[in-house]
Amino acid sequence: MNLNNKVIWITGASSGLGKGLAITLSKKYDCKLILSSRRKEALEVVKSQCQNPQNIAVIPLDLGHYNTMEVNVQEAISTFGTVDVLINNGGVSQRSLIMDTSIEVDKKLMEIDYLGTIALSKALLPHFIEKQSGHFVTVTSLMGKFSSPYRSAYCGAKHALHGFFDALRMEHQKDRINVTLICPGFVNTNVARNALTGDGSQQNTQDKATENGLSVDVFVARMIKAIKKEKFEAYIGQKEVLGVYLKRFFPKLLHQFVIKSQVR
């Protein structure tokens, strides 16, 4: 897949992986970008750090308001006349034990990470079908392939994304629509600081595993490579990627390994 001359829509673009993607894509490819997140001011800052700002549009979007995605999609399409790639990157993580986690936190994770993402994708799907091309790139997590303590709601939402987008890929291969699931391991962003605790408040602290993860620049380079190759799934991280294969072939061994690692 050639990213030049494409219109690429990125959610969660105000920080972290989304911000890194926007800046890198603007520098290396002759493409147009639509940047979305809840924070318009932060998106404008990201836009100012990108090259060719005339090719970059800002559309504020709240994944929690999943009943209004048709409006956002129409605005995105009208901005540059089309959308070629949707990068579903927006979302929130969690750090709390199941017993300490309010059901409202479980609900919020599902609404933002799962329902918001699929609502946006479903709203854009008719456009992809009409033009008989399109690419959904959804950032899930290695936690969408196996689980870990303190992340029950997050794991549930990310597992659900795999189920939905695998089905979408099968149903719309005939429409020349591609689906790539990007599964990050630990990446040095603010994902842990912004993670919700059991009562719904932010954790506001970094953890060592996240701090020692891949840099955003390294991750983004690998992610773009996977998108261009139109991979079904890409596992991007360090030794934690082995968990995918342990889960498949030696699930009890993975269970013991994760418990002993005491990852928070």
Automatic annotation (TrEMBL):
InterPro entries named in the record: NAD(P)-bd_dom_sf (IPR036291), Sc_DH/Rdtase_CS (IPR020904), SDR_fam (IPR002347), SDR_family_member_7 (IPR053011)
A matching Pfam family: adh_short
Entry coiled-coil feature ranges: none
PROSITE patterns xrefs: ADH_SHORT (PS00061)
UniProt superkingdom: Bacteria
Family named by the database record: Belongs to the short-chain dehydrogenases/reductases (SDR) family.
Protein name: Short-chain dehydrogenase
Organism whose genome encodes this protein: Mangrovimonas yunxiaonensis
